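Z., the sequence and structure:
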Amino acid sequence: MPNEDASQRKQRSSIDERIVAAARNERWVLCAGEFRAIGVSESAVHRRVKSGWLTVVFHGVHLVGRSKPTRDELHRAALKACDGLALGRRSAAVVHGVMERWDGPIEVHVAKKRRKQKGLLSLERDLAPNEITWRNGVPVATLAVVLCDLAEVLGPAELDRAVHEAEFRRKLKIAAVERAMARRPARPGYPALRAALAKRRRAVDGRLDSKLERRFHRFLEGRGYPPSEPSGGSPSCASPKRTSTTAPTSSTPSSAPPCAVVTNVPRAERKERASGRAAWGHRGPRRP
C-alpha cells in the first residue's frame, strides 16, 4: 500500500506539472481540447475542480490555480468557449475605452453560430484580418467595427457619447468607420452614427486638438461666424527665422515676416536696461 500511495502521488504530480506547463503558455485558461492534448482525462479534471485547483469559467473551459478570473482571463475563456474570432460590441467597446462598463453577457464574434451559454452571447459575423486587433493577448474587433456594431444596439445619445469618447482618446478615424459601414450596408442605427461622425469631421480633419478649441468652434458656428484656422497657423508664422544680432540700419528695410519675434535691440538701450537693473538690484525695488 505505501508503494501504491507513492506511485499515485508521483502520477498526480506529473499531471499537475503538465497542466501548469500548458496553462502558462495559454495564460492560465485551458479548454477541454487542450486538456486532452496533454493527456489529462475528464475524470482528472473533475477531481481538480472538486479540490478547487481548477475553476469552471464556461462549459469546457477552466481557470488554473485561481477561483476568480480577471477581466482578460474571462475574455479568453469566452473566446475559447465558443471558438470566437474576437470580442465585439459592448465588450469590445469597454476594452477600447469608449464605454465605461458593460455588465451584460460577453459579446463575441464567431464564424459559426454556437449553442447558448450563460454569460456569453455569440455574434455570427465575418471579420476581415485587418478588422481584428489585440489587447493584452485578447483578439478584439477594431474600433471602427465596434462603432458600427454599437449603432445597432445603442440609442443616438449613447452612440454620440461613444463617438465623443473615441475622439477624446484620439482614436477616432472617420475614414476607417466609413469603410466598415460600406462593408456592412443597410444596418439599423447607421443614420445616427453618420450624424455623430458629421459633428466631429471638422474637428478631426482640422486638427482641433484641445477642448477649448472645439468649444470656440462651436461658439462660432452657433453665431454664424466663419470657422477660424487650425492651431497650426499660417506657414509664414509657424517658425520665424532667427535674425541677426547686429543693429539694423535705417537704409536697410527689415526682411523678417510680419509675425517674427524681433530680437535686435540697440546697444544703447541694452546698456540703459542693464544700468536700471543694477540700480534696483536683482530683487526689484524695495517696498516702503
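The chain has twelve helices and eight strands. The radius of gyration is 32 Å.

Let me know what you think.
H.
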